[in-house]
Amino acid sequence: MATQRILDFLATRRPAGPCLVVDLDVVRDNYHAFERALPDSRIYYAVKANPAPEILRLLAAMGSSFDTASVAEIEMAMDAGAPADRISFGNTIKKERDIARAYELGIRLYAVDCVEEVEKVARAAPGARVFCRVLTDGEGAEWPLSRKFGCVPDMAVDVLRSAAVLGLEPYGVSFHVGSQQTDLSAWDRALTDAKRVFSTLAEEGIVLNMVNMGGGFPTRYLREVPVAEAYGRAIFSALRKHFGNRIPETIIEPGRGMVGNAGTIKSEVVLISKKSDTDDVRWVYLDIGKFGGLAETMDEAIRYPIVTARDGGAAGPCVLAGPTCDSADVMYEKTPYPLPLSLTIGDEVLIEGTGAYTTTYASVAFNGFEPLRSYVI
Ligand SMILES: *Cc1c(COP(=O)(O)O)cnc(C)c1O
User: Fold this and answer.
1) Are residues 142 and 266 both part of a single domain?
2) Which phi and psi angles does 64 have, rounded to 5°?
3) pLDDT tens-digit series, residues 201-255
4) Residue of minimum CA distance from atom 3 in ligand 1
5) The model's pTM
6) Is the predicted pLDDT of residue 51 greater than 90, yes or no?
7) Pocket of ligand 1 (CB under 6 A)
8) Atom of ligand 1 minimally distant from the CA of 111
9) Which candidate among 21, 47, 141, 281 keeps its CA 20 to 30 Å from the CA of 178?
10) Could you tell me if residue 17 is inside a domain?
């Protein structure tokens, strides 16, 4: 829910137009919760979730490391005060000249998931550390990241072996169990594969040091989610189960779980209408939609809590849509969203849990609507 600081900011500043307000106190609390939940893991904040400079500066000052996907994200993390040795180039899909630029900037930790990418890293970042991403099924996640990234464990063995042959340091294995992952056993399944890669390579004398356990830690939307501590316990017991008393260095890359609940979007009802006099379902058009930052409503995957000043009275089903002239700009239709019957054109609505994956997904000027404004307080 929106913090009092966010509500006070909106009440006193009254920013015009849709905007995201992020409360840094919540980000700080989330960082501490991850530290407490997994005290032996290093935290690499996934910059793509929300790269606002204030957030990056806070996390850099708290000692966080950063998972980046491009030269621009590397530079943002460095500008925020993170030294190169606290930044990984975690995208498995990189141009060779971007790898070279990252290497110039001092980055020495790279993600790969195929021999072709290893060859690029070997040429452009000689001697660097690489970790190989293995596929996961994304089962249990509301925003799965399966298929596109990673390879099967047997191939990961070949990939890391080729890294050694090409003069790189085969450093470890990574996976991502899928974003908004609420199944605590997902890490156990992925660690089974990671351990297999460790063991097979050890038989050849290649000793890996690190498991990158990715992101996936959820934000509470409409349903309750397990707390960070529960994730910590499940992950630690899975590490024990697979690695015994020789648990390698581990890192986590929270994105959504670090900033999702720190942000609230303020939006306004532009129109409420029906398609026929006999329809039960109202169409509610907001001044923000899929192209204004709510891209994760794609396939109605992420269902945000929506709060209005009229909550508490009778509610009825609504199709929720954005303001642009694209018929894809509909957030919730297959599963209509219940909103107060008294909701009126001009009302303000708060869309909660929107600190992650909103501002950067907003289009530049589709239909002339400016990108989502953001205030970090
Ligand atoms: C997006 C991403 C993350 C963050 O995932 P969340 O589910 O938001 O925590 C972490 N690692 C990598 C490699 C990613 O691509």
Assistant:
1) no
2) -65, 150
3) 999 999 999 999 999 999 999 999 999 999 999 999 999 999 999 999 999 999 9
4) 215
5) 0.97
6) yes
7) 46, 48-49, 67, 90, 176, 179, 214-217, 253-257
8) 13
9) 21
10) no
